[in-house]
Give the backbone structure.
Amino acid sequence: MLDEFLQIDLPAILVAVLASIACALLGSFLVLRKQALMGDALSHVVLPGIAVGFLLSGHINPLYMMGGALAACLASVLLINMIKTWGKIEPGAAMGIVFTTMFALGIVLLETKIGSKVHLDAQHALYGALELTYWPDPGNLSTLPHQILTLGAILILITIFIFLFFKELKITSFDPVLATTMGFKTSHLNAALMTLVALTAVASFEAAGSIIVIAMFICPAATARMLCDNLKSQLYVAAMFGALSGLLGYILAALMPLWLGFEHSLSASGMIAVTAGFFQMIAMLFAPKYGALKS
Amino acid sequence: MPAPLSVKNLSVHYHLQDEPALSSVDYEATPGHLTAIIGPNGAGKSTFLKAVMGLIPYTGEVKVFGKQLKDQKQKIAYMPQRSSVDWDFPISALDVAAMGLYGKIGFMRRVTKQHKTEALSYLDQVGMADYADRQIGQLSGGQQQRVFLARTLAQNADLYFMDEPLAGVDITTEKIIISILEKLKKDGKTILVVHHDLQSVGNFFDDALLLNRIKIVEGPTKQVLTPDNLAKAYKTPVLTDVA
C-alpha cells in the first residue's frame, strides 16, 4: 500500500503540484498584464513543435520537445504578423487562426503512424498522463521520473527570474509606457516572460496535459486577485492555490473513489482543473474585500 | 544651454489611417516655463507627447537638452493619463510613488527602505502620505491623480510631460497639482502639460502650443489665445486653411 503510494501517487502529486505552482506564478503576471489567454494560446501552439521534437528524437526527450516547442512559438509569432498584415484582419482573429491551426496540426502529427507507435497520442496530450508517472524505486533519486526533475528545474528558474526582475516585472505589468520612458526594455522582459510561459506549458503539458496548463495559468492567479492587495501576496497566494488544487484534485480523482469503494478513479488532470476553478468561484463570491457577496 | 525640448519637422502617421495625426511640427520649449499643449479632440496633443518621448514611431528630429532622447532618459518625467493604467492592480499608493525612482535605482537593483522613505516624502508633498498603504483602487479619482503626481515628482527630472493632469479632479486636488507645478517652475524645471480647458489656460500657463494636426501657433499664452488662432484650431478645416 505504502509502496504503491510512493511509486504511483507521490510522483503524480509532485508533478501536479510543481506544474501548478509554476503555472500559477507566471499566470499571475499574465492575468495582471491582461494576457491571460497567452498561456492558453501558447499551450496550443507548442503542440506541433512537441510532436516534431518527438518524431525526430523517437522518444520523450525533454530537450527535443522544448526546442520544438520554442520553434513553434517563434513560427506562430511570425505567422500572426503575416496574417495580420497580409490578411488585413485584427490581431485577435489572426491569433485565433494561428493557435487553432497549430493545435490541429499537432493533433494530426501525433496521430501519424510514428506517433501512435509510442505512448504519446492526442488523448495523452489533452488529458495528460499524470497517472503514468512512475517512480520504480522510491527513495532512489536516480530513478526519479524525469518530469519531476524538469518541472522542478523550471520552477527554480521561474523563482529566480521573478526574484531578480521583481521591480521590472512590477512596473512593466502596471505601466509599460512609463517603464519604456524610463529606459526599461519592456519588450525584452515580455519576451523572457513568454519564453518561460512556453517552457512551462511544454513541461507541464507533457506531464499533466494541456487541460491543467490552461486552467493553472488562469485560475489560481484569478483566485489570488480576489484576495490580495499587493503583488508579493498575489504571487504567494496564487502559488498556494495552485499547489492546493494539484494536491486536492489528485486526491479527489485518484484516491477518493477507491476509498469510497469504486473500481475506477477519475481523470486526475481534469479534477485538478475543476478544483482550481472551484476555488476561483468561491473566492469570486465570498472574498472578504472584493467578493461579489461580501457582507 | 540647449533647449529642454527641440522638435523639427515632426510628423506622425498611424498605421492604417489616411491622414497623418501630426504633420511637420516645429517646436522649441522655453527653459523654466510651464507650457500648455492645447487643441480640439483628436488634434494630436497626446500623440505629440508620445512621439517626443519615443513611444510611437515618427519622422523628424527630437532633441532633449541638445541630445537624443535615449541618452537623456533620466532627465525626463512622464505623467500619463489616469485612465492609462489598471487601478485594480494589486499595488499600494507607496509602491506606485516608488516607481518614479526605478529609473535611478537601475536595472535589477532592489527597492530599499530608503527608497520607500523617499517615495513617502513625495506622497506627503501631494497630501497622500496617510494613504500610503492603501491599494490604489480604493482611492478617489483625485487621490489617484495625486499618487501619479507623486510618482512623477519622484522621477526628479528637468523636463516634465504631463497628459491631462487636471482632467476630472476635485478642487483640493486641482489646488495641490497647480501649487506643485508652480514649485517645479520655481526650481527651474520645464513642464509641458496637455490641457483641455481653454478657460483656465491663461491662469496658470506661461506659454501655449496650439495644435490641430499641425502646429497652429506657439508662444506666450496671451498671444496664442486670440480669437483668430482659436478659430483656426477649433472651427475651420485646418489642413486646407493653412496649406
About this structure: Chain A is about 80% helix and 0% strand. Chain A has a mean pLDDT of 88. Chain A touches chain B at residues 32, 34, 164-168, 170-171, 173-175, 177-184, 225, 228-231, 233-234 (CB under 8 Å).
